[in-house]
DNA sequence: GCCAACGTTGGC
DNA sequence: GCCAACGTTGGC
């Protein structure tokens, strides 16, 4: 099982939108970047991901679960792009900010910190554990 | 609102 | 296949 991180602008589609979809989940549409798409194609049902708010908040606010593997993105006719479906699992009791990630030992290699433009990115098990702890979730 | 970083496009 | 121009993302 793998770990990921999804970025979204909260005023377009934020954590509250995701939780409103409940267990039915929602397609993670709109990715138009090969690296991000390739990451989605590597996802399996049951993989977990962090939900990050870019621009506003700049913090990891919750955890989502992949509930459908990559399939064509219904928001475009361009066959190059597809997307997974995710559902909200739980919110972080204490959202973890970008600022905290930047200074936390063990997180300096995260794409979140040094490749700010990648909107869907892999997270290592070590990074996952560190952020869960910072976010107030039991390990 | 600005700008740096980066990805993509298209001319050659 | 190279590279300049352009567009977009996202932190500040």
From TrEMBL:
Q: Where is the EVE domain?
A: 2-134
Give the source's domain of life in one word.
Answer: Bacteria
Pfam families attached to this UniProt entry: EVE
Which InterPro entries does the record match to this protein? 5hmC_binding (IPR052181), EVE_domain (IPR002740), PUA-like_sf (IPR015947), THYN1-like_EVE (IPR047197)
Q: Which Gene3D superfamilies match?
A: ph1033 like domains (3.10.590.10)
- What name appears for this protein in its UniProt entry? EVE domain-containing protein
Origin species, per record, is: Paragemmobacter ruber
């Amino acid at each position: 099982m793998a770990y990921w991180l999804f970025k979204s602008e909260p005023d377009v589609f934020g954590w509250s939108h995701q939780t409103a979809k409940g267990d039915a989940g929602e397609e993670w549409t709109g990715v138009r970047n090969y690296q991000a798409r390739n990451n989605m194609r590597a996802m399996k049902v049951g993989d977990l991901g962090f939900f990050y708010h870019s621009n506003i908040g700049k913090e990891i606010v919750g955890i989502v679960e992949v509930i459908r593997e990559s399939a064509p993105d219904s928001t475009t006719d361009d066959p190059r792009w597809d997307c997974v479906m995710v559902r909200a699992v739980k919110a972080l009791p204490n959202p973890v900010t970008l600022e905290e990630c930047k200074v936390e030992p063990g997180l300096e290699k995260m794409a979140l910190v040094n490749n700010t433009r990648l909107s869907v990115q892999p997270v290592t098990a070590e990074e996952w554990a560190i952020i869960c702890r910072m976010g107030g979730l039991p390990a």
